[in-house]
Amino acid sequence: MTTYGILYIGLALILVLGSAFPLGAYMARLFEGKIRLLAPVETGIYRICGIDPARQMGWASYAIALLMLSVVHFGLLYAILRLQYYLPFNPQHIAGMAPMLAFNTAASFTTNTNWQAYAPESMISNGAQMFGLVVHMFISAAAGIAVAAALMRAFVSGGLKTLGNVYVDIVRITLYLLLPVALVAAVVLLIAGIPMTFDAFPTVHTLAGGTQTIGRGPLALQEAIKELGTNGGGFFNANSSHPFENPNALTNLFEIWLLLVIGFALPIAFGHMVGRKREGIALFAAMALILGLAMVGDYAAEAANNPILVHAGVMAKPGNMVGKEMRFGIAQSTTFNTAATGTSTGAVNSVTDSYTPLGGLIPMFLMQLDEVAPGGVGSGLYGMVLFALLAVFVAGLMVGRTPEYLGKKVQSREIKLAMLAVLIQTMFILAGAGFSLLTKSGLGSLDNAGPHGLTEMLYGWTSATENNGSAFAGLSANTPLLDYGLGLAMLFGRFAVLIPVLAIAGSLALKPKLPQSTGTFPTDGPLFVGLLIGVIIILGGLQFMPADTLGPLAEHYLMLAGKTF
Amino acid sequence: MSNQADTIGLFDRAILIRATGDAVLKLNPRQLIRNPVIFTTEIIALLVTVVGVHEVVIGQAAAFSLVIAIWLWITVLFATFAEAVAEGRGRVRADALRRARSDTMAKLILDPRDRTLFKPTPAPELHKDDLVLVETGDIIPSDGEIIEGIASVNESAITGESAPVIREAGGDRSAVTGGTQVVSDFLVIRITAEPGSTFLDRMIALVEGAERRKTPNEIALDILLAGLTLIFVIAVATLPGFAAYSHTHLSIAVLAALFVCLIPTTIGGLLSAIGIAGMDRLIRFNVVATSGRAVEAAGDVDALLLDKTGTITFGNRMASAIYPVPGVDERLLAEAAAFASLGDETPEGRSIVTLMRDRYQIETKLPTNATLVPFSANTRVSGIDSGGRSWRKGAVDSVLKLAGGIPPAAFTEAVSRIARAGSTPLALAVDGQLLGAIELKDIVKPGIKERFADLRRMGIRTIMVTGDNRITAAAIAAEAGVDDVIAEATPQDKLGYIRKAQEEGRLVAMCGDGTNDAPALAQADVGVAMQTGTQAAREAGNMVDLDSDPTKLIEIVEIGKQLLITRGALTTFSIANDISKYFAILPAIFVATYPGLQALNVMGLTSPRSAILSAVIFNALIIVVLVPLALRGVKFRAVGAAALLRRNLLVYGLGGIVAPFVGIKAIDMILTAFHIFT
């Protein structure tokens, strides 16, 4: 580890955490409906779509509307992918996608996962990228944030029957948050050297005398929303390690900022919404601590020597540079990858498959913690609130009162729903990976043998279920088993959490808001932050310990013993 | 407090013997299914037993599977034992209560107009609205309302208090309880309970735990524990897939050991014992709660409605000073005051005589020729006529009317100063001549202010309810340090206040005894009725205080909090235990495949099999080790939630992480010393 590396992590975190405060305050005003700069545009959209913006929805209507919206978008995207050959903006004349891959991809982009079982350059047209995928990058991100906003409203006062209007929320979040920030970010990335074009891929003659096709497209905008909306779906297979997606150190830092900033602004917005800023800061602190530790840990794992390479005389200087871009080095690579797995972005600027076992375990464990540090836009916050409810429930009794969070009693209904969400995620990850490893098809997808292969499969199911989309690489995912299996994992990982969250919001909203007193369980201090982190690790992460032991941990000790796979 | 349950120790030998038998009976799966975690453990124990026996039959080395199976059974037994011990003390109490109920013959009155005409009838055959006669020495056959007579009643069968109490028709002392005994005079009682649902029946059912239903918080906790169990079902059931890929064979016994160690057996095994013990603590405090839900609500209460009289103050105002009018000697006034009160047997009257004797050394005797003038609501004065002279003391305006004329300014000022201080002024006149004023002071109980400060730290507001005027009420409130006052309170005011507080999201507790308290008792989240109160009050509340001590409301809140804290502490402890078990079992089961994983064996356990067995043994023993804590409850401290959380999180959270590392290591060392599975 070098001082520079630690300073880099510090710089990235300070930039993000510092800007999260003003952005969070702004977002709270946005969720409260106080930001109406483009009211005529809004009204126009509502009129065209036939939305009654005054209609307030209960949790069930909110969930059903969101579900229907997702079904329609899923169908549209599926159609675009299947029919892309006949659609405009397809200069490379790329053929329509196969049904199982189209299913997987549609599921992936509807759920804000951006798992890419396809090779983007050769299997998807520029038009489909722009009007299929990028549109979803906005909508799915806005939908996640809308659910978080609905949950926040449940804590504001007592006896509320409604949580807002999902259409209005999505329109406003897109119009006043995602679009403006993404557009400005796109211009910044454009200036930094990222292309933005609908033209065909040019073919050039290389210095060596050969010819090469250079991929390009509407990259700057896709890159901006890819990070901002914690999507992660790259224009290129190489994702953010490709020079056109992430040309230099400056864009790398900027992209890290983009992919973290909304995730960290949401707890701040939460604090503003409930009128107790310290409550938001507590969740924010828990997120920051987990992510900060993961960043330092991952950097330490990669900056340490790989004993096998040192022994073989391959490695000249300390640190594992395998799978990393020379222009980024270790700290910039690990910081980007932990930021992208701590959020549900899943973008990569280096190959996790080539990380040391512990360097690969940390991003995977961040995902297994149910993506809450800071998690996907919206989903991170509501996941964190679920854990806060569980933490309050487990330990809250110790102050001699039945548990309450922010003045709302936590009772059997909330616990039932929260446990359901944790349970379904655990099931898809462990049952999915465990089953795949028993099948011939699953084993055929693995690039490596031994514990490394196990990690590849486990990482894939974790990434899909947690809606991250990060690929460990080394897993050939375009098989019927994984296309359909991971597609279902993504859908359940999204909606089997999102619907219980809305149900919890509906139930909490109705409850009276209890006044705070010195007898109330304090949820705004360092003690609660520590407790929350403990509960996240014990309830959200430890159930993966047995599987993780057979994967990265076993490999780590094998590596120390000098064995590779 | 004096009652038989108090003398029963936590681990009385007889209770333990009976509990051991009960623990085995409770293995019945149909009964155990109420407890999802322990029920699952029992199924796993059965499965491992079958596997172990099968291994013996086919001649494999089976010792390990069978030993694991035995310890899993022990885990289940410890859990059922914990519940049985908790129930044990209630049983002893219930047996004593049952003796009070049995074989009573009632004197059923056949003609309401003639109480001498009755028919002997067994108590269980009495119905609502039957009239019975109870005479000296008779056991009152069932709950009822006195419609005629006054008698002293020994209620020790119910309350444990042997001093008899007075019961009479009309007013707030008209309720009697079946099983108590009339020790003098007679009563005619209208029965108010159907057979099988008398207070005694309900109490027996409650202390026995027969009517025990899970409280809302217990249900929620059960859901969490069941959810955790399911998560670990998934984690352990999918493990063979990962293991097969890794060319590792995991036996059923090993998987079962991992699973049972990870699921929250500790809190699962102790949860119902904690609840029963909480009710039992309340009963030992001579408070009977009609449901566990009420005890839980007591912990949540954040506003206490306390009657001033008897709770905050001693209840009877006492003379504290005298103020003569100008020109009257203070001693003269003192003598007159003592003399005027000689016939006044009220506590106030006696306190005047006492004060004059103590402060002015005045000894007076009632002359033989004196005529007592008792207090009447009309005249509002009392006194003595003797030797042609008259002494009168009473309400200021009434005495002034007797005295006539305009009182001196100094007197008027003294009177208003007394009122401002929250005391009651009395005026004294001899032969129609105003002599001065006597101050009757409401004495606030010593230590009550500190209790209220404790409550405030716990986030509980105290509200004083009094019929006094605002000025008087405010002065007492300031002296006692309550947070709010309802002065000139009518029962309607109480009800209104409770409703308003509940709308603000507060939980309110109150106590009361009169029939007009009943609506407020029913509305309050915790309504404690006094045993001496009316039947209506006792039915409206969700707790009955057998000692009829309104101060007990504070202890009830503390018992409720203690119950919740114990539950939370053991839940946290149980869940925090998991970390160590991963470190004990995971390296043990995979070290054969990946020798490097030995590095995760941070406890340095001797062998894989000793490691697994140690974890399983610890998991079983910790239940029985924690039984005393579950029954006694975590000690409650009246500090704020933040301080309480810091302390308990340190002890039970951090302790829960560390303790099993130490425990498992110790068990492993013992196993190693005896060369068991090493």
Automatic annotation (TrEMBL), chain A:
It is a multi-pass membrane protein. One of its GO terms (cellular component) is plasma membrane. Belongs to the KdpA family. The gene is kdpA. Pfam families: KdpA. GO terms for molecular function: P-type potassium transmembrane transporter activity; potassium ion binding. The system is composed of three essential subunits: KdpA, KdpB and KdpC. Keywords: Cell membrane, Ion transport, Membrane, Potassium, Potassium transport, Transmembrane, Transmembrane helix, Transport. This is Potassium-transporting ATPase potassium-binding subunit. It comes from the Bacteria. PANTHER family: POTASSIUM-TRANSPORTING ATPASE A CHAIN, POTASSIUM-TRANSPORTING ATPASE POTASSIUM-BINDING SUBUNIT. The chain crosses the membrane at residues 6-28, 59-81, 130-152, 173-194, 256-274, 281-301, 380-399, 420-438, 484-506, 527-545. Part of the high-affinity ATP-driven potassium transport (or Kdp) system, which catalyzes the hydrolysis of ATP coupled with the electrogenic transport of potassium into the cytoplasm. This subunit binds the extracellular potassium ions and delivers the ions to the membrane domain of KdpB through an intramembrane tunnel. It is found in: Cell membrane. HAMAP family: KdpA (MF_00275).
TrEMBL record, chain B:
Gene3D superfamilies: Calcium-transporting ATPase, cytoplasmic domain N (3.40.1110.10), Calcium-transporting ATPase, cytoplasmic transduction domain A (2.70.150.10), HAD superfamily/HAD-like (3.40.50.1000). It is found in: Cell membrane; Membrane. It comes from the Bacteria. Residues 120-208 form the P-type ATPase A domain. Mg(2+) binds at D513, D517. It catalyses: K(+)(out) + ATP + H2O = K(+)(in) + ADP + phosphate + H(+). Its EC number is 7.2.2.6. CDD domains: P-type_ATPase_K. Pfam families: E1-E2_ATPase, Hydrolase. Its main location: membrane. The chain crosses the membrane at residues 36-57, 63-86, 219-244, 250-276, 582-600, 612-631, 651-677. The active site is at D307 (4-aspartylphosphate intermediate). The keyword Repeat does not apply. GO terms for cellular component: plasma membrane. ATP binds at D344, E348, F375, S376, A377, N378, T379, R380, V381, S382, K393. GO terms for molecular function: ATP binding; ATP hydrolysis activity; magnesium ion binding; P-type potassium transmembrane transporter activity. It is a multi-pass membrane protein. Keywords: ATP-binding, Cell membrane, Ion transport, Magnesium, Membrane, Metal-binding, Nucleotide-binding, Phosphoprotein, Potassium, Potassium transport, Translocase, Transmembrane, Transmembrane helix, Transport. It is an enzyme of class 7 (translocase). Part of the high-affinity ATP-driven potassium transport (or Kdp) system, which catalyzes the hydrolysis of ATP coupled with the electrogenic transport of potassium into the cytoplasm. This subunit is responsible for energy coupling to the transport system and for the release of the potassium ions to the cytoplasm. The system is composed of three essential subunits: KdpA, KdpB and KdpC. NCBIfam families: ATPase_P-type, kdpB. Belongs to the cation transport ATPase (P-type) (TC 3.A.3) family. Type IA subfamily. This is Potassium-transporting ATPase ATP-binding subunit. It comes from Acidiphilium rubrum.
